[in-house]
Amino acid sequence: MQGAEPDVEPGxxxxxxxxxxxxxxxxxxFSVMLCxxxxxxxxxxxxxxxxxxxxLDRFDPxxxxxxxxxxxxALSVARDARRAARRTGGLVERLLAMTLRTTAPxxxxxxxxxxxxxxxxxxxxxxxRRHRTLIALRFGAQLSFLEIxxxxxxxxxxxxxxxxxxxxxxxxxLEDVQ
Amino acid sequence: VTTRDDAxxxxxxxxxxxxxxxxxxxxxxxxxxxxxxxxxxxxxxxRPALVMVGLAAALLASVATFVVSPSAxxxxxxxxxxxxxxxxxxxxxxxxxxxxxxxxxxxxxxxxATSHGHTVTLVGAYADNTRTVVLLHSEPGLLPExxxxxxxxxxxxxxxxxxxxxxxxxxxxxxxxxxxxxGAGANHLVLRIHELRTIGPPTGPSRVIxxxxxxxxxxxxxxGTAVTPSVTGSLGxxxxxxxxxxxxxxxxxxxxxxxxTGDLADLSYRAGDVxxxxxxxDGRVVxxxxxxxxxxxxxxxxxxxxxIYVSDLTTPGPGTYHLVxxxxxxTIEQTVTLR
Lengths: 178, 339
Fold this sequence. Notes:
heterodimer; A: mainly alpha; 7 helices; B: 6-stranded antiparallel sheet
């Protein structure tokens, strides 16, 4: 899994701030691939980090690496957020702007690359939540199939096959639009 | 069954996903730490999407009620392009707002309001029988959230569609619906803004700055812009409604789209490939452009989406033309008369 080496206190103890600093980028990657809007992703990523910081004192290294613990929290927070959204039932609040094109200066390669990524993200957001979750864990959180299997309670082969099916669905969406 | 080539193709797609970078996550740790420490508890985020649906829906409604009522009278207030204070961004903003044909009739009344250290300046305004447009300037990276426009009687000319380059330049054009029973002279209006939203890259997070920015100004309705009846049809699975307003050699097209989310996502990704053409009586293309500023909006989980785009054309002038909207193998064709 990607991520900076977390800061630890002199005694080798991971601090809440160190946890946030080290894992914020990869938590955001996970969130933005799972959620259907960037704002929702930012909310989720913040919630995951805040909950993890608040529960860091309960983390037991003897039970596994901090990453596995963190991603279990991430999945839990994501489930809670989804339930909350269902409770509010707000249809309009879950609107999203898939793209917002402005009249940008032409021929900016960086911008074009970003738009291409935006196109992939737009297609990704049309997938089912199950497919997005798998893609978010594999390519957002950058977990191995074995790690995903461990935190989801599935076997590795099943996770691998399901992830390829999710990728195939994404490719089909992209092919549809070409 | 997954073939070897198929698997390799999927691996490439996975690698593409893995290679994506999200620089907008840069401030995430700080925000999370602030929340954790309880030093600051900013709202998680604004709900711009909530605004956008209102904007889109209201705009759709207002466009649907456009009326063709050209008039010969033109009121020239002040030529925007002649005013040095707004000169640097005049052409860009006027283009974004689709006001090329009416640039000389945009007021340049300059009004500012400051709240919580942030200033919003109204640098121009325009109104005709289809729309009310305000041109704003704020700090780069800030956009007004839920702007509210009222006339002297407290009536609202609809909610706005925003177009602009606020993220980089701080310039913004807000297009509202037409004024309700406007007077022949100056119509006194009030634009109230209670929130500014920070914006970043397309996939970036945003936050809200609350305050009170009240801008009072006046505008005289321009009766010189003619509007064609809407052109409707389908491009593939996407339903299209195009309304064209024209003045002189400038035509401004407002394009409303509705269709399956995947098709709209595709179209938004390649909006420039949607071609809007005016064909003369001799069969020659006299004006052509793609879709410009705009966006596509969808409800989460919905199979349907809506889109709004603008496209501007430089035309030979008044006359009867064949209007063609083309995307891939689909076209919509209709005869239009520009006055």
